[in-house]
Design a protein that fits this description.
single chain, four-stranded antiparallel β-sheet, 2 helices, alpha+beta
Length: 138
């Protein structure tokens, strides 16, 4: 009778372990995806806030734009209505996506920010931000 009980306990333990592994296999990837999505939203928010803060003094240099997203790849376009800084991020599926941060002119405390997904913004033909850029600082 002792062998039957021991066998039953081993089978029950294996069933519990197997169920736990199955559950972890299904929930861990979704939890990782959720964390990655949260990180994307956090990064976009802090990047936008950093750009607004940098523009608050009336100027926005390429170095300030580069620093807003911890030195990642940026493209910058400046025109009479806005400064458009575009950067690459990683989405919840671990794929690249591009976001543009448009700051209204004139730069200063009244500057507003719009953020849009803009997958064409960082195309190779776009002009990258560079410390020696000849573009006006704002």
């Amino acid at each position: 009778m002792g062998v039957a009980v021991l066998l039953f306990l081993v089978v029950a333990a294996l069933a519990v372990i197997g169920s736990l592994l199955w559950w972890l296999g299904r929930t861990l990837p979704e939890a990782q995806r959720s964390r990655t999505q949260w990180q994307l939203e956090h990064d976009k928010t802090t990047t936008g806030q950093a750009l607004l803060t940098a523009a608050g003094d009336g100027t926005l240099t390429d170095e300030e734009i580069q620093a807003a997203n911890k030195g990642g790849h940026w493209t910058v376009r400046r025109d009479a209505q806005e400064v458009r800084a575009s950067a690459q991020f990683v989405d919840a599926d671990l794929e690249q996506e591009y976001w543009s941060f448009m700051l209204s002119l004139p730069l200063g405390p009244q500057t507003t920010l719009r953020t849009i997904r803009d997958d064409g913004a960082c195309a190779p033909s776009a002009h990258p931000a560079a410390p020696s850029s000849g573009l006006p600082a704002g």
